[in-house]
Amino acid sequence: MVYSELLFFLGVMPVTVLVSLFDRSAExxxxxxxxxxxxxxSWGKPLGVCLxxxxxxxxxxxxxxxxxxxxxxxKLLLAADLVMNTALLLLLGHNYIFPEDSFLNIRSAxxxxxxxxxxxxxxxxxxxxxxxxxxxxxxxxxxxTYMVSFHSFMGGPVNRYGDTEPGIRKRTVTGQLLSDGLTRxxxxxxxxxILAQAFARIRIAGLDHADTTLAGSWVGMTxxxxxxxxxFTGICDMAKGLGLMNGFEYEDNYRQISTGxxxxxxxxxxxxxxxxxxxDVLRSVAGSSKAMGCAALFAGCVLIALWYHVGAMFLIVGVxxxxxxxxxxxxxxxxxxxxxxxxxxxxxxxxxxxxxGGLYFTDFSEYTAWLGSLFGSxxxxxxxxxxxxxxxxxxxxxxxxxxxxCEPCKKLVLKGVAxxxxxxxxxxxxxxxxxxxxxxxxxxxxxITLAAEAV
Amino acid sequence: xxxxxxxxxxxxxxxxEDLPEMPEECAESEKAIGELRRRTNEDKFTFINVxxxxxxxxxxxxxxxxxxxxxRYGDEGNKFSFERLANGKYTAEISRRYYSTIAxxxxxxxxxxxxxxxxxxxxxxxxxxxxxxxxxNAGSNDPQGNxxxxxxxxxxxxxxxxxxxxxxxxxxxxxxxxFYDTIFSxxxxxxxxxxxxxxxxxxxxxxxxxxxxxxxPQVSSTTTAVPTxxxxxxxxxxxxxxxxxxxxxxxxxxxxxSLTEDTKPTDTESSSGTDATDIPPEEQENTP
Lengths: 455, 288
Description:
Chain A is mostly helical. Helices cover 73% and strands 0% of the residues of chain A. Chain A has helices at 6-20, 26-42, 47-68, 71-93, 115-131, 140-148, 161-169, 175-207, 214-245, 262-267, 272-286, 290-308, 312-336, 341-356, 364-374, 385-393, 395-405, 407-421, 426-454. In chain A, helix 6 packs across helix 7 and helix 18 (407-421) crosses helix 19. By secondary structure, chain B is of the alpha+beta class. In chain B, a hairpin with a 4-residue loop joins strand 2 (170-182) and strand 3.
């Protein structure tokens, strides 16, 4: 089950939110959340959920052990927890690396969703207990609520236990939170179902055919990255909306794309909470020296790439990204500091496209062929009719997507809305009612699109 | 002691007398009143937002859930047992019913198509139904480039060459060429249909179209022979390929330099397109 399934947001989600409103106590809400998470994770794949609940008990024991033991023993326990979570990640999240005849190879029908984020949260809990960022939890049900909460299974955030614990023990669901949660969820659904699919069509028209073209190579790959961005941020928005509807205020797992911090800032725009976890862990290992910091930065890029997918191309992309970020830290950051944003964008956007384009391919030869086609090698034509048709057929969506991503355009729109809102009588009403109607329209369009796809 | 009430009693002053300065508290209270009014309005619109979205969501939910009644499936329904729950069959059957009983599927399809037509300004190119009107003036040199009355072009199927499939997988060249005799006499369009598998969700309808300039010497032509794997054991010659089309290799007659040198970009276009409507939904479950 995923967030953008009709069965989830028209069946499971409304029932869960309504039932959890029957009582104000946090214990009742936690129970409903745990039961719903079991249903969500085990939908069609019930066996994997047993492993998840067993690992909750293991994390609880590890946390208590780390808090009560000395530094040496604590370090050993933390290392054991890291090994356990890595093994779970490989077994449940990256099972494809095991050969088919291996006993570790599990049928994909049995693999639960969200293993990568689940294991990251589990390790982050023990790491925070070790570093003293939070206390070890004695109530296993509070820890279970944190670990198995389905809000962060699909796209994060990797929220830290210390930040979530006050909400687990006591939270209230107000009308404002419900409103914000519903709106955020529907906006995320729209990004995932409408915008990401539009860029998928453009990507297919540009890249997925035998004859490569110049425009297809550039536009198609840009569309691929846009598809990934809107799909990921859509999932994050849906997760945040679900959290708000249940009384949790998670932080955003992405930030506005900006070229201010060059490629380092660009790559850190997505999955910010996971990157922060890796940064904290590697910084504690590397210490304060510059050389070790650069080595940790490089290692972090490689590890994060492999965390997404264990494969040769992801490793290559991680190495390339790490190398560029180290070079920026050592040399380019100061050189580019005073340059205008437009000049930085001329550097950041093409280089990012060249590096991240490797994620699309499974073979290095395909990647090099695509690199050549970017500059005309092997291309017979400039533009295909299919690509032109795909671009024209999704023009308004491309404009909306561009405005949502481009900071200056977004500021201009928000400024206009703020200007309109200044009139306390009519302006506020127009803006708020318009926002409500737009959100309702997005929801209906998503329902129709998903129903048409399901049919 | 001065009576402060009389000091600020406005009615006791004549019109010509200067009124005393109003204390600043009134400006502050006006600000406070404005802020309270704004917050009250915000709360009101927040409530409206929740109600509207909840009604729409619950309305859609009621519509879809009401269609998954077990009575539709008779007594042999989705039996609940621990074994069926443990191996996922119970929940899979619920999902299957939920999606298979969507009412008015054609209506949803039409609505989705109508909505998607709002997303763009329209390419004006219809690959599925070429117009059958228009004169057959292929090759005639009409420097005026008059448009046909029907606004389209006529279609003439030239060759349909296919071989019978063998039981084993084999790569079989399959050439189906359709020439469009256009009234746009400066151009001739050659369209090659590639194989596709209607049952394979990852296979797409494709067509390769090369448009060449007739007023100039034939400097470019592309004949696309698409090898497709045919897996049907006893498929007739008209069967469609069951696999994705493999990479197209152009023939020796193709001249790469002609397209950009001798012709205008609009006169010479080659496309290898996919039917954008046959896109399988993204599988988000594979996201780690």
